[in-house]
Amino acid sequence: MKLTCILLLTLVTFGCGTYNNMNPAPGAVSVVSQIMPTSAPAGGSGFVLTVDGTNFGMGSVIYWNSVAHNATYLPGQQITTMISASEVANPGNVPVYVRTNGQNSNTIMFMIKQ
Questions:
Q1: Residue 30 carries which DSSP code?
Q2: CA-based, 20 to 30 A from 84: which of 29, 45, 49, 61?
Q3: 81-112 pLDDT, tens digit each
Q4: Which residues, in sequence order, are CB contacts of 60 under 8 Å at separation 6+?
Q5: How many CB atoms lie within 10 A of CB 8?
């Protein structure tokens, strides 16, 4: 019975693509569908930026205003990173994109409100 359960769990994990979704196929370009939050007040505190999209992997990097930020990969095609208070000190628009396998995704703008 235990062996059957282990085999079934293995089949579901690999068959449903859970394992394969951790790293995109070579040459696959990441696509950012949305970021959360989409804005913050100038001079506000730091926060966790969540990026939703496709073709993210364990080696994906989030770029905030052209500065690389280590990303934490979450199942379900989400990655997160910490944005510091100093990075939202001044009002303006900040480009956000993801680099995976040496290729850049599309860019979404983050608004720092006055």
A1: P
A2: 29
A3: 999 999 999 999 999 999 999 999 999 999 99
A4: 30, 71, 73, 79, 98, 99, 100
A5: 11
DSSP string, 91-110: -EEEEEEEEETTEE---EEE
12-21, 24-33, 68-77, 100-109: least confident range: 12-21
pLDDT digits (tens, 9 = 90+) for 57-87: 888 999 999 999 999 998 879 999 999 999 9
* Total domains in the fold of the chain: 1
SS3 32: strand
Position 12, amino acid:
V
E-state strands within 1-114: 31-36, 39-41, 47-54, 61-64, 67-70, 72-74, 78-83, 92-100, 103-104, 108-113
pLDDT at 38 over 50: yes
* Chain length of the chain: 114
Interatomic CA distance for residues 9 and 68, integer angstroms: 37
Q: Which residue do the tokens 């001079």 mark?
A: 43
